[in-house]
Amino acid sequence: MIESLNKAFCALPGVGSKTAQRFVYHLLERNRDGGFELAKALVDAMEHVQHCHSCRTLSEKDLCNICANEARDNTQLCVVETPADIHAIEQSSVYKGKYFVLSGYLSPIDGIGASELGLDDLEQRLQERTIKEIILATNATVEGEVTAHYISNMAKQFDVQITRIAHGIPIGGELEYADINTIAHALSGRKNYD
Length: 194
Known about the structure:
By secondary structure, the chain is α/β, with parallel strands linked by helices. Helices cover 44% and strands 13% of the residues. The chain has 2 domains: 2-48, RecR Domain 1 (Helicase, Ruva Protein, domain 3), CATH 1.10.8; 72-164, 3-Layer(aba) Sandwich (Dna Topoisomerase Vi A Subunit, Chain: A, domain 2), CATH 3.40.1360.
């Protein structure tokens, strides 16, 4: 039983065998109530959490709270790789539009193509002609850039404004510690200083 619990924890990203072992021993030796609570929460989540029918994020309902919110701007659609990206953007309290979650990025080597990312659903939404702007918020990786380029080419046929989130030097960051790609993105994405 202990070994199977170790394996179960190792299924989590970033959790190796030593960390899994610490989790297991902590729960069994010091926090059995916490272990039962964790088990119940996992079972509840696995049984009740699904994908939102509109944006594909994780939700307990057919439509997530953002998609169901009529006050959100239906003409803006921010395309992200994961539900965690939505959480990060929402914490800024700046964006007031809707989302589309890819749940990954294009990677033909791994067998992940347009259909696996739901890009046919995205194209269908674009055909409805209610979206005026697509904001590409994929990660600044090779795969993220390829995915953004693919979506951009797809969206151009629908006369939609296509924008890309800025990438560059973070606030509080110092140039000497930034890599050359970050500096290049920061320079190419510069804007007027008022």
